[in-house]
Specification:
Layout lengths: L2 E5 L8 H14 L4 E5 L5 H5 L10 H5 L9 E3 L5 E4 L5 H7 L9 H7 L7 E5 L6 H9 L2 E7 L4 H18 L5 E8 L6 H14 L12 H5 L7 H4 L4 H19 L3
Parallel strand pairs: 1-5, 1-6, 2-4, 2-5, 6-7
Antiparallel strand pairs: 3-4
Helix pairs in contact: 1-11, 5-6
Bound molecules: adenosine-5'-triphosphate and magnesium ion.
The site of adenosine-5'-triphosphate has 20 residues, from helix 1 and helix 9.
Length: about 260
């Protein structure tokens, strides 16, 4: 019983990586076996979990058949959380993989051949709709779309929703939206409230009930190489990501999709 969730939005800086790190960690704290895959050449999930070494076997080596999946899995400070790291070479993968047969299915095939003891595989996507994101969406059962509570948020996800429809039509008919996640919500501003209302009225129960507040501690944690739970477990940010994990686990139990 393994669930693969891609965290995607082609817009930069909306909270994909923050969600990837802290949702993975929250699920691991709930004793779910979690594998986080960093599919972004920026390597922010890798660094955000305190991994700085060069020359590690990374997702790039797996995708190009230079290494087998288990060789790239690293343990983290949380017993139930492992990671497949990214490095800057992954930028080249977008180009190098173009000539590969069935290039959209590479990550899916690799994950299928990976150890099967994971309850959740979480994929942190880059801010683009290129081959790495498409591979992630093809490999995934569902997608979480973080949306920053700011002006034109709704416009920003239209392109992504079109891409999702195309992926569903041609590459992965079972893909569904796990949830749209409102991030960096600031309840002191009218704009945050308006955007949240607009997104909810448009997408209804596709939007997670859990909202991620703008929280300084969430912004600080990655520069210490820590998830929010090792950095400040009492923060609003930690509470929010625990709630998100709980919401996802409850939906899973009820079979909601
Ligand atoms: P990219 O598209 O570049 O990969 P991203 O979508 O992964 O970006 P993040 O890296 O998670 O976005 O967040 C962008 C910045 O905002 C980071 O500096 C992060 O620490 C900060 N940030 C994210 N979420 C919050 C939050 N809820 N409160 C405060 N700061 C946040
Ligand atoms: Mg990111």
């Amino acid at each position: 019983m393994r669930k693969i969730i891609a965290i995607a939005n082609q817009k930069g800086g909306v909270g994909k990586t923050t969600t990837a790190i802290n949702l993975s960690s929250a699920l691991a704290i709930a004793e779910k076996n979690v594998l986080l895959i960093d599919a972004d050449p920026q390597s922010n999930s890798t660094r955000g979990l305190g991994i700085y070494q060069d020359g590690l076997t990374s997702l790039y080596n797996i995708l190009l058949d230079e290494a087998s999946f288990p060789d790239a899995i690293l343990k983290t400070d949380l017993p139930y959380l492992s990671i497949v790291t990214s490095d800057i070479d992954l930028i080249g993968a977008e180009v190098e993989l173009v000539d590969f047969a069935e290039r959209e299915y590479l990550l899916k095939r690799k994950i299928e051949a990976a150890p099967s003891n994971y309850d959740f595989v979480i994929i942190d996507c880059p801010p683009s709709l290129g081959l790495l994101t498409v591979n992630s969406l093809v490999a995934a059962n569902s997608v979480i779309i973080p949306v920053q509570c700011e002006y034109l948020a709704l416009e920003g996800i239209k392109l992504l929703l079109e891409t999702l429809e195309r992926v569903k039509s041609y590459l992965n008919s079972m893909l569904y939206i796990e949830g749209i996640l409102l991030t960096m919500y600031d309840d002191r501003t009218n704009l945050s409230r308006q955007v949240a209302e607009e997104i909810r009225s448009h997408f209804g129960d596709r939007v997670f009930r859990t909202v991620i507040p703008r929280n300084v501690r969430l912004g600080e944690a990655p520069s210490f190489g820590k998830s929010i739970f090792f950095y400040d477990i009492r923060s609003k940010g930690a509470e929010a990501y625990l709630n998100l994990a709980e919401e996802i686990l409850k939906n899973e139990e009820k079979g909601i999709r």
